[in-house]
Amino acid sequence: MEGLITKSCKLVGLAGAVLALSLMAGCSSNEPTPEQRAVNAANRADQAASRAQAASQTAQQAAASAQAAANRVTQAASDAKAAADRAEAIAARTMASSPRPRSYRRHHKAAAEAAPAPSDSGAPAAAPSP
Length: 130
Known about the structure:
80% of the residues lie in helices and 0% in strands. It has helices at 2-30, 34-97, 104-114. The longest helix has 64 residues, at 34-97.
């Protein structure tokens, strides 16, 4: 009989140990260990650092493009100002050197009216009446 009790106690003890192990395994599978949590946090931090570095590079490229565009705009403005200054100088020279319109046609016309017109007969023409 002692053998039966000993076997029963060993069996109950073994069943209890299996139950305790299964409970521990079940609990630990739901919740990560502190080491696993630290590894996961480190991985997330590494990914965030990679994304931040990529964003930084993109921002630097955008800043360089903006600076180049600003330089091109400044150069274009300078070229436009120089062209306007040249055009103004040419216009000033052209206006200064152009002769003023004369009314010589009127004088010429008046002189032609005052002069006697030659006639076909060879006789002098009569003077115009006032």
